[in-house]
Amino acid sequence: MSNAPARRTIWSGFPELIDWIELGLPVGTDAHGMRIEESMGDGKYTVRAEIPGIDPDKDLELTVAGDMLTMHAVRQSQSTGKHRSEFRYGAFTRSVRLPQGAHGDKATADYKGGVLTITVPFDERKRDAKAIKVRKAE
Q: pTM, whole model, 2 decimals?
C-alpha cells in the first residue's frame, strides 16, 4: 500500500463546468454544445455529432458560411407530471472550421440512431504543406 495521499481532482464537483470548457462555449449562453467526432480521409471530411431525441426535418438546421459549418438543433422537453431528468433540452449549437479545399456546397448529411453524420468533400491537392527551412541565428 502506498503512503502517498489520495489525489482528488478539483473538477470532480463541477461536471457542467467541464462540459462548457470542453465544448468551448461561454458560460451563461442559452445554447448547449454538442459532442462531435471529426475525421479526414479519401478526399472527404466527416463530422459526427451526438444529437439524440430530435426530428431532423423539424429540429435541425445545418449551414455553411465560408469555411465554417454550423449545426443547430433544438430538443423539446416532453414531460408530463413531476419527474426527474438529467437530459438537456433546448438549443444545441456547434460550429467547426472546414479544412482547406473543402467544398461546403457539396456537403451531405444523414441522421441515424441519434447521430448526425455530415460529409464534406475536399480537394486534397490544396492541402499540400510546404516545409520551411529554419536558419540558425548567430
A: 0.66
